[in-house]
From TrEMBL:
<comment type="similarity">
    <text>Belongs to the metallo-beta-lactamase superfamily. RNA-metabolizing metallo-beta-lactamase-like family. Bacterial RNase J subfamily.</text>
</comment>
<dbReference type="InterPro" id="IPR055132">
    <property type="entry name" value="RNase_J_b_CASP"/>
</dbReference>
<dbReference type="InterPro" id="IPR041636">
    <property type="entry name" value="RNase_J_C"/>
</dbReference>
<keyword id="KW-0698">rRNA processing</keyword>
<keyword id="KW-0963">Cytoplasm</keyword>
<feature type="domain" description="Metallo-beta-lactamase">
    <location>
        <begin position="142"/>
        <end position="337"/>
    </location>
</feature>
<comment type="function">
    <text>An RNase that has 5'-3' exonuclease and possibly endonuclease activity. Involved in maturation of rRNA and in some organisms also mRNA maturation and/or decay.</text>
</comment>
<keyword id="KW-0540">Nuclease</keyword>
<feature type="compositionally biased region" description="Low complexity">
    <location>
        <begin position="104"/>
        <end position="113"/>
    </location>
</feature>
<feature type="region of interest" description="Disordered">
    <location>
        <begin position="1"/>
        <end position="126"/>
    </location>
</feature>
<keyword id="KW-0479">Metal-binding</keyword>
<keyword id="KW-0378">Hydrolase</keyword>
<keyword id="KW-0269">Exonuclease</keyword>
<dbReference type="InterPro" id="IPR036866">
    <property type="entry name" value="RibonucZ/Hydroxyglut_hydro"/>
</dbReference>
<dbReference type="InterPro" id="IPR042173">
    <property type="entry name" value="RNase_J_2"/>
</dbReference>
<dbReference type="GO" id="GO:0006364">
    <property type="term" value="P:rRNA processing"/>
</dbReference>
<dbReference type="GO" id="GO:0008270">
    <property type="term" value="F:zinc ion binding"/>
</dbReference>
Length: 678
């Protein structure tokens, strides 16, 4: 208990009758040495020959007293008195500080005497190790999740999702593997969320179905989490705790301090994790915006304070590490919107953006008011986020501006702005359905002026280009990022990353959040600033990174990977199912149906051949007839060989039919034999 109280006192000391200075995580002896340094060697050089340094000066006798003109001979006594005073100086200095027991570090160590001159300094003291275990967000975009563990305590930072790629046909979402957390649920002290984007909160509801733990974050982030918990029937069962920047919460033997940062969604937070081994900073997603739409700029002062005290490790966002310079301010988009609203003239304006970019939505609403247009929303996530942001006061919409999407036909095109989802070309999004003429409420015409206010996430470029092409075919004018400044990123570029590195001055650096090229570039930036490459680690999900205040090393691994969500199924789609889906998509399916007499073993009906996704049967009748004969012969050969096991018969049909179809088409469709016994 004494250690825990000391640790809490170190983070947030309380007054006890008088104001105390913040505690420092150093030994009292080191503090004395720092406050009152010893006299310089130059002063020692003025000592009388043959007099010992430790010998106390004595007053000369009356007989030995020199005449007045020889008075300068007593000058050496002055430096001796100065040196004696220097030795005594620490005593009053220490009395103004906190008692020794209140400034002890988390892991108490014996008091060290001041280091003597000429001797090597003592080796650094190893402290209680802390483990950092990424379960997502490395070598990928999205699915961010990190476990911080120390002793018998651990907590989670973020729990996001990612969207499936072309290698995952039929999959809806991808979430992290929670098996390590579920196995160690008795250690779990809570979940901390940095902000409300899907890649940081999208997997939380799936985790909370299997573990019961409190959640901590800002008001808007928890407001968005509430909607997800309601969908999964968890609302009311999970304790949600609202925090503010500069707040500190306890997580067992650790504590988490929240720091305000700018991002493309309000209420984004960075974390300063105070552990027995030292302070670990996790920036989350951030940028440095000197002119934010709402709120203050990133709390650089706090990063600097922590850096001056000493930062053990920095885990920093790498998403834009390949981009030089600094990210533009969100206000730059507003200037572009002003010009584009004028350019649209009498056409209807349709703007696609991320639903979570509330600052962007606020600017669209402001210009709609200025140019006397009504605003309609399209897309489920856009409706949910705008409703929650308006309810909590983060989005300010004047009365009468928002209208239902069903009412747009009552207004002229020059009176409307439609804000929609689908900026990433998602197949089922509202903008994609508009482009494919499949939207039930909105029909795109040459009288539409469409702005895609987002940049494609890596991997989505083809989807976005496809949507742009289809919209242009319908006659609409399409404005996208490469043409005008209609989007700015929410992530820091190289110069901003260097600023945080310079302020925090970490001993160790771990780049996070991005594919390998992003992580590598972020590491290169640190090296360019003079950081030792040996203190930089590009790790992988599942690896256990341990820090003890002296060194950083990988000590093992835990179960980690991707869990696919397909409909209501979580984790029931694995590599084998995906392989079969890809096989079906690439080569199609052949079904061989045969009926056999259970007594005689003779073929009663069939085999019949059904083709799906392989060839069109009516255009390949000869090949289908030969396939039928080969399947029949395979069954007859099995019966003649006294083989009655269905599994063996099916394998024989698959082998013989597969060999024939490969010779004819050089394709390998999935062959599914069905045997009915009569």
């Amino acid at each position: 208990m004494e250690q825990e109280m000391d640790f809490t006192e170190k983070i947030a000391p309380k007054a006890h009758g008088q104001t105390k200075k913040p505690s420092l995580a150093i030994d009292p002896a080191d503090l004395i040495e720092h406050i009152a340094p010893k006299a310089k060697p130059a002063q020692r050089g003025r000592r009388k020959p043959g007099q010992s340094a430790a010998k106390k000066p004595q007053a000369p006798s009356a007989a030995e007293k020199p005449p007045a003109k020889a008075e300068p001979a007593a000058a050496p006594a002055k430096p001796r008195r100065q040196r004696t005073a220097a030795k005594k100086a620490p005593a009053p200095a220490v009395t103004t500080m906190q008692p020794a027991e209140t400034i002890a570090p988390v892991v108490p160590t014996p008091a060290k005497a001041p280091a003597k001159r000429g001797r090597k300094p003592a080796a650094p003291q190893r402290k209680t190790p802390v483990r950092i275990i990424p379960l997502g967000g490395l070598h990928e975009i999205g699915k961010n999740m990190t476990v911080i563990e120390c002793g018998s305590d651990m907590f989670i930072v973020d729990c996001g999702l990612s969207f499936p790629d072309e290698e995952m046909p039929g999959v809806d979402l991808v979430i992290p593997d929670f098996s390590y957390v579920e196995k160690n649920r008795e250690k779990l002290r809570g979940v901390v969320l940095t902000h409300g984007h899907e890649d940081h909160i999208g997997g939380l509801a799936f985790l909370l179905k299997s573990v019961d733990t409190p959640v901590y974050s800002s008001r808007l982030t928890l407001g968005l989490v509430e909607g997800k918990l309601k969908e999964h029937g968890l609302l009311g069962r999970v304790k949600l705790n609202v925090v503010q920047p500069r707040d500190t919460i306890k997580m067992g033997c650790m504590a988490v301090e929240f720091i305000h940062v700018n991002h493309s969604i309000p209420d984004a937070l960075a974390l300063a994790i105070h552990t027995p081994a030292g302070v670990i900073i996790m920036t989350g997603d951030f940028k440095i915006d000197p002119t934010p739409i709402e709120g203050e700029i990133t709390d650089l002062a706090r990063f600097g304070e922590l850096g001056n005290r000493g930062v053990l490790a920095l885990l920093m966002d790498s998403t834009n590490a390949v981009k030089p310079g600094m990210t533009m301010s969100e206000r730059k988009v507003g200037e572009s919107f002003s010009n584009l609203f004028q350019r649209a003239q009498d056409r209807r304006i349709i703007i696609a953006s991320f639903s979570s970019n509330i600052h962007r939505v606020q600017q669209i609403v402001d210009y709609a008011v200025k140019y006397k247009r009504k605003v309609a929303l399209s897309g489920r996530s856009m409706l949910n986020v705008v409703a929650k942001a308006t309810e909590l006061g983060y989005l300010k919409v004047p009365d009468g501006i928002l209208i239902e999407i069903d009412e747009i036909n009552r207004y002229r095109p020059d009176q409307l702005v439609i804000i929609t989802t689908g900026s990433q070309g998602e197949p089922m999004s509202a903008l994609t359905r508009m482009a494919m003429s499949d939207h039930r409420k909105v029909t795109v015409t040459p009288h539409d002026f469409i702005i895609i206010s987002a940049s494609p996430i890596p991997g989505n470029e083809k989807l976005v280009n496809r949507v742009i092409n289809e919209l242009m075919k319908l006659g609409a004018e399409v404005i996208y990022e490469k043409m005008y400044e209609v989007h700015v990123s929410g992530h820091a570029c190289q110069e901003e990353l260097k600023i945080i590195l310079g302020l925090t001055k970490p001993k160790f650096f771990i780049p996070v959040h991005g594919e390998y090229l992003h992580l590598r570039k972020n590491a290169d930036n640190a090296v360019a600033m003079g950081m030792d490459p040996k203190n930089i680690l590009i790790t992988e999900i599942g690896k256990v990174v341990e820090l003890d205040g002296v060194e950083m090393k990988v000590t093992g691994s835990v179960p980690a990977g991707r869990v696919m969500v397909d409909g209501l199924g979580v984790g029931d789609v694995g590599s084998i199912v995906l392989r079969d889906r890809k096989h079906l998509a690439e080569d199609g399916l052949i079904i061989v149906v045969t009926a056999i007499d259970s007594q005689s073993g003779q073929i009663v009906a069939g085999p019949d051949i059904v083709s799906r996704g392989f060839v069109y049967v009516r255009e390949a009748e000869d090949m289908m007839a030969q396939t039928r004969r080969i399947a029949k012969k395979a069954v007859e050969n099995c019966m003649a060989s006294n083989v009655h096991e269905w599994g063996n018969i099916k394998n024989r049909i698959k082998d013989d039919v597969g060999d024939y179809l490969w010779q004819m088409t050089k394709r390998t469709p999935m062959i599914l034999p069905i045997i009915q016994e009569i």
